Amino acid sequence: MTFRSHWLIHHVSLCLRHERELVVLWKVSEQTQRYDTSTQFRLIADRVMDESLGGDEREATDFEIWFDQRLTGGPHEKTWLDDHPLHAASVFCRLLGTALLRLQGINASQIAPGSVWACYQSGFDVARHGAQAIRRELQKLNHCAEPRRGPKAVFPSLYDGLAYDYVDDPDFAPYREVFAQHLRESWPLGPGDELLGTAVTVRKLHSVRTAAEETGIDSRRLRKLLEASSMIDASLPDAWAVFEAEAARPMLASLINLTSAKEFFDAFDIGRSQFNLLVEDGILQPSLVDADTKHVWDPREGRAFMDRLLIGAETIQQAQHGWESIAKSAQRLKLRPADIIRAIWDGRIQRVARNAQFDGYASIHVYHDEVAQALAQETPSAMSLEMFTKTVGLGNPVYLNRLVRQGHVPTTEMRNPRTGAMQRFIGTEDAAAFYLRFTTLRILSRAKGTTWQSLSHRLRAAGVTPFSPDGFDYGHVYLKKDVEAALAD
Q1: How far apart (Å, rounded) are the C-alpha atoms in residues 364 and 392?
Q2: Order of strands, edge to edge, in the sheet holding 352-355?
Q3: Could you tell me the residue ranges of all domains in the chain?
Q4: Can you give the pLDDT at residue 1?
Q5: What is the per-residue DSSP string for 314-334?
Q6: Least confident of 23-32, 82-91, 255-264, 352-361
């Protein structure tokens, strides 16, 4: 048996000399036993001698040869990846190769544990030729899903890796930029979407579909005009035929016609009954009053209404774990939708999401338990510690309990209306005191219109650390004054 130290590197899975796959010698959960190599080698000695531990034979891939040559400093054919650190280049090859499997109808979950080497090779075969070749393959992947589902639905592991897992590693910056450029140039991203962890607040690209939804212009008519103006690729479907939103603004404005109420609520998937309630409560208002026409609704106002609700929202692929549409949550609590909408706008409801399975108003979801704590009349005018923890985004309730026990956050003792027991709640004044002194990444995310990951990175770079004057771990809660100073424009 041969054992070489570079085989311990995660990216290595083959002995190039014998063209045999590497095998796991032992798996032991207890750490002391796992590193007792003398004992472990004795246990597998017979299997080593009879070669039953031998790996399968296969030819070395171009990636494996290139990796070995870079590791040893040997001569090799020059590639674009040679200009970047080896580990980051290798990880990117694996992430890209995994994403490219979708072109063959294969999902990441279908990759056998011993077949990851093929992902490295697939990604390397593209990335070796540079940024343009990478973007060409990413363009092919675009059409594996609808853009409304978001980039993560098309490139799940690649997106998570570059947007979150390696966001603080400068070695991955070149790959992030290649990917970001692809998204900027081909995805119709708008409010409610994110670009590699940063919330999109201004739309740069429209597709035929998004422009038709925003303006109320018939998509067939709009497409003909855009094609005649050479603003879109005629070979692409409406969802992917994109154009510069700002450049097309004058043309779109000239085409906009006020619509009837039915055309308006159909365009934004509001539903007649919901629309009537929103109009009654002043959330939606016609652009013309007392006019001798039923076409008094401006589609742009509908889009602005949607965008305002989606500022800082996360994207979910399906409604699970307590997410409900605004209409459903209001119905369950016997509230009017306007109550929930105004609570979102004034910050009393923080958790808002865009459900990628739906369009328009129907796609906007809220976390029902938070709505119940904030607005339901049958509950006390206070939140339980657990719900307040979720609302402000502290994650684990132990952090808020610790803040309370150490005297940093006030509470109010009240009788639980369901159990009859006395317990601590975060009352209105208690919550106000918390917001006056502290902030969290979730609160900042909604206020700044960006993601908590990018804010966390900015705070670390500015030397701002989570609140912990007495050495206790309170989670990612910060002194508001420190954060405001660090993030001041």
Answers
A1: 19
A2: 314-316, 352-355, 364-367, 323-325
A3: 5-49, 62-187, 268-379, 387-489
A4: 44
A5: EEESS--TTEEEHHHHHHHHT
A6: 23-32
